[in-house]
Amino acid sequence: MIGVTFRFYDYIVLKLLPNLRRDIQQQMLMYLEGHSYTYFQNNFAGSLSNKVTDMMRGISEIVLMSTDTFLASFLGVMGAMITM
């Protein structure tokens, strides 16, 4: 049973997370492209790219943290059921 949960975790990390990051990055870049010329005059390009990069790191951390929490609680419940 533990092997199945680790396979599930690996599937999320290796298959779903890169696609999620790519989709969010594309949406953010499309949103930035829709701004006016004056917006880009008032904001530095490096600042905008840092915001996109920070969002990618944040998404990864949120997904991994929620997966770890789910995995730990699932293993805890399974361990308790086996013990009972």
Highlighted features:
single chain, 84 residues, mainly alpha, 3 helices, 92% helix, rod-shaped
Describe this structure in words.
The protein has 84 residues and is mainly α. It has 3 helices and no strands. The chain is rod-shaped, with a radius of gyration of 19 Å. The model has no long low-confidence stretch (mean pLDDT 82).
| Fraction in beta strands | under 5%
Helix content: over 70%
Taken in chain order, the helices and strands follow as HHH
What is the mean predicted local confidence, pLDDT?
82
Number of helices in the DSSP assignment:
3
Stretches where pLDDT falls below 50 for ≥5 residues?
none
Tally of strands:
0
What structural category do the secondary elements indicate?
A: mainly alpha
Q: What's the Cα radius of gyration? A: 19 Å
Main sheet makeup? none
Quote the distance from N terminus to C terminus.
Answer: 16 Å
Overall geometry: rod-shaped
